[in-house]
Design goal:
- By secondary structure, this protein is mainly alpha-helical.
- Among the domains are: about 385-550, Leucine-rich Repeat Variant (Alpha Horseshoe), CATH 1.25.10; about 640-710, no CATH class.
- It has helices spanning about 10-15, 20-40, 45-60, 70-75, 80-95, 105-115, 115-130, 135-145, 150-170, 175-185, 190-205, 205-210, 220-225, 230-245, 250-265, 270-285, 290-305, 310-315, 315-320, 330-340, 345-360, 365-380, 385-400, 405-415, 420-435, 440-460, 470-485, 490-500, 510-520, 525-540, 545-550, 565-580, 585-595, 615-625; strands at about 640-645, 645-655, 665-670, 675-685, 690-700, 705-710.
- A 3-stranded antiparallel beta sheet has the order 1-2-3, with no helix packed on it.
- Strand 1 (about 640-645) and strand 2 form a beta hairpin.
- Helix 2 (about 20-40) runs antiparallel to helix 3 (about 45-60) and helix 6 runs parallel beside helix 8.
- The longest helix has 21 residues, at about 20-40.
- The radius of gyration is 37 Å and the shape is elongated.
- The termini are far apart.
- It comes from Pan troglodytes.
Length: about 725
Amino acid sequence: MVVPSLKLQDLIEEIRGAKTQAQEREVIQKECAHIRASFRDGDPVHRHRQLAKLLYVHMLGYPAHFGQMECLKLIASSRFTDKRVGYLGAMLLLDERHDAHLLITNSIKNDLSQGIQPVQGLALCTLSTMGSAEMCRDLAPEVEKLLLQPSPYVRKKAILTAVHMIRKVPELSSVFLPPCAQLLHERHHGILLGTITLITELCERSPAALRHFRKVQILRLLRILGRNHEESSETMNDLLAQVATNTDTSRNAGNAVLFETVLTIMDIRSAAGLRVLAVNILGRFLLNSDRNIRYVALTSLLRLVQSDHSAVQRHRPTVVECLRETDASLSRRALELSLALVNSSNVRAMMQELQAFLESCPPDLRADCASGILLAAERFAPTKRWHIDTILHVLTTAGTHVRDDAVANLTQLIGGAQELHAYSVRRLYNALAEDISQQPLVQVAAWCIGEYGDLLLAGNCEEIEPLQVDEEEVLALLEKVLQSHMSLPATRGYALTALMKLSTRLCGDNNRIRQVVSIYGSCLDVELQQRAVEYDTLFRKYDHMRAAILEKMPLVERDGPQADEEAKESKEAAQLSEAAPVPTEPQASQLLDLLDLLDGASGDVQHPPPLDPSPGGALIHLLDLPCVPPPPAPIPDLKVFEREGVQLNLSFIRPPENPALLLITVTATNFSEGDVTHFICQAAVPKAPLRLKLRLTYDHFHQSVQEIFEVNNLPVESWQ
């Protein structure tokens, strides 16, 4: 006997009337028990009603897997009411992961051959939703026959099913290619739209189909037909120009047509004037009141900025205006495009706009904006002073959001600009006196004050307003940094080193500095404590060498366009060093004593064996410089992945300055005709030798691809 249960409408009302989640679960569990009992009793009359309730429960997120076999029974039924619910259940409960989906192949084949249009429509919808590759191969002939049926209702669904089949099994393209030419003559808009989608899929996956449809003049299809084909692109130029100039944009449909026209112009080998027209269309989109249209325009211009830079530059004022958008996605796109538009001719004006945006932009955009400004300034800076001012403004405005290498880059920039030392130290001192919360700014300021504190006190900088600073104010400011709860351990290290360096640059008594140094000898931070102890030992035991040890830092070499010039200077310095006198033995002994500052009294120090008397030998042994090793043997590249034209290669290199380090570069290449989007490559090193685990996710040919594989055949040279 079938256990009585609720009707679907009553079940919905009762679930919606539940006041708590626990009450909802109780209602659903109770009804699911009735549904299970009904399925066990095999009631054929009410089976479709029970499955309909189960599907509603499934849509609420509750388990409904026990209804899969009931879907098969309803699909096999001769009643339309049963088939309708059965096919709906198959679309919701079955997919390729369940073997049960193969059991409905025969039922779908029978329904497609019956000639009853509603039943054929149900079967086609189900096949296009959850049809696996095996089902597509088995049912392709039936779908091909329905493409030319007289009923537009069936033909439209058959076309969309064919699209799904081609995406699942690209080799079925030859099956659906012949009917497409006839379908293009249809007047039914739904059939035409579906046919264009089908032809697009065919052309993307089949070179034969691409050659076959070269002469078809339909806007969305032109993008594929003219890609990398000079003759077809030239034929399309006039047509695209007419569409671009004659389309009415008073309605959103016209904007959609124009956008498709722009994409087509940019993808084919179009004329230069036509590409400028496409960029101007996107520029007009930026003035549209619809935010979605403005976002599409910014995204498209960002794609074109590399290939059509001068054309996009004409719309720079409009792009900059978009920085003030309240919508976060729009302002982010405008920021990315603005940074891409910066060049040597507009860098001053663009930096003013970007710095103004940095002061008021949302917190989640500050890091990107600050990083972009620093990179653009490093690349296009007209003068060193302008470069320094720009970085200082970023550090003052958003110091906590800058890249990790900003401090090192600025100290290196200041160190290499000798004529700007006095200007830089005064600017940084003023900024530090106003705000000690921006840690990168505090670190650069402390470093600069320690290096060029004598220039700060001299007051001979004519480029800024006169500033009278005495020694006590400078020391008090650095002590304030040391004592601030906002200072990081690294910042305190900068400040402590600055105080130590000022002990050789100030004319007054060093007792105050010595007291501060001795206090931090018992600091809880180990690195800061070690630094303070070493400085205190330098005061107590090696005070006669303090001035030489705390001299100004030499300029560190950096990679960049000035590398050749710096290399020449280093050669000249090397030639001068050859003519320098040989250091005497006592001087070498004093330098070596620095290595044992913490080993106790100077009388107990054990000296190493006599040094090589060659010129500069003492310094070489002091720094323990190794002999130049032979260059490492080259490591062959390794191909680790290839699928449908997408290839992944690994290349290996050991830096000469650190042969123990292995740098692995992953290069992804797309040799296919389809675009690869949303590409993500993740790597992991398992706790086992000589293995690398990779995970790839990307979209290719309108399909989501995910691959997880292991590389266990790394070249021997990479680990020996």
